[in-house]
């Protein structure tokens, strides 16, 4: 998690990739960033309610990586509701993890629809608190998604 200063979506994506430690093990961050930007140019991932879920295939990742940037001022993201984004999630998925990626994406989208969940993230006082909120909610929601998809591995 990082507090984003950038007010423009491509700059915010770059800032998130550069500053969130979960992305530091990716060898070719530039290629991943290009993939995310290419995807954003096709269609914005600003899903409304102050949330964007940017994503892209990351050939260097061994597992799905999820990072979060929080913007106090808001980022112009061409969101579906035309409102600024305050929660920018970024997912890097390896090419061989499509099923898991869809489960994670579905769980995340369901979580961010909840006003209380978004508010708790925005009001969290530390990175550790954000991680705790995400881990607890995400584990519950991902388990429900796995059951719904019939995923057993």
Describe the structure.
Helix 1 (9-19) runs antiparallel to helix 2 and helix 3 crosses helix 5. Helix content is 47%, strand content 21%. By secondary structure, it is α/β, with parallel strands linked by helices. It has one domain (2-149): Mannitol-specific EII, Chain A, CATH 3.40.930. The model has no long low-confidence stretch (mean pLDDT 91). A 5-stranded mixed beta sheet has the order 1-4-5-3-2, sandwiched between helices.
Can you count the beta strands? 5
Query: Globular, elongated, flat, extended or rod-shaped: what is the shape?
Result: globular
What gyration radius follows from the Cα positions, in whole Å? Answer: 15 Å
Global mean pLDDT: 91
Instruction: Report how far the terminal alpha carbons are from each other.
Output: 28 Å
- Proper CATH architecture: 3-Layer(aba) Sandwich
How much strand content do the residues show? Answer: 15-25%
Largest sheet: 5 strands, mixed
Along the chain, the helix and strand elements come as EHHEEEEHHH
Helix content: 40-55%
CATH fold-level assignment? Mannitol-specific EII, Chain A
Total of DSSP H or I helical runs spanning 4+ residues: 5
Question: What is the CATH superfamily label?
Answer: Mannitol-specific EII, Chain A
Ranges where pLDDT stays below 50 over 5 or more residues in a row are: none
Summing up helix and strand content along with how strands pair, one would put the structural category as alpha/beta
Give the neighbour order of strands across the main sheet.
Answer: 1-4-5-3-2
Number of domains: 1
């Amino acid at each position: 998690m990082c507090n984003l200063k950038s007010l423009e979506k491509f700059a915010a994506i770059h800032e998130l990739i550069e500053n969130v430690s979960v992305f530091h093990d990716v060898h070719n961050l530039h290629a991943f960033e290009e993939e995310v930007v290419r995807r954003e140019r096709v269609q914005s991932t600003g899903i409304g309610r102050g949330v964007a879920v940017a994503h892209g295939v990351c050939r260097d990742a061994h597992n799905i990586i999820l990072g979060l940037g929080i913007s106090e001022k808001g980022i112009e993201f061409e969101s579906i509701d035309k409102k600024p984004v305050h929660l920018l999630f970024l997912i890097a998925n390896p090419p061989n993890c499509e099923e898991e990626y869809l489960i994670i994406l579905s769980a995340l989208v369901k979580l961010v629809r909840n006003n209380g969940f978004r508010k708790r993230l925005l009001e969290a006082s530390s990175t550790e608190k954000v991680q705790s909120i995400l881990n607890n909610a995400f584990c519950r929601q991902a388990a429900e998604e796995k059951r719904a998809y019939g995923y057993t591995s």
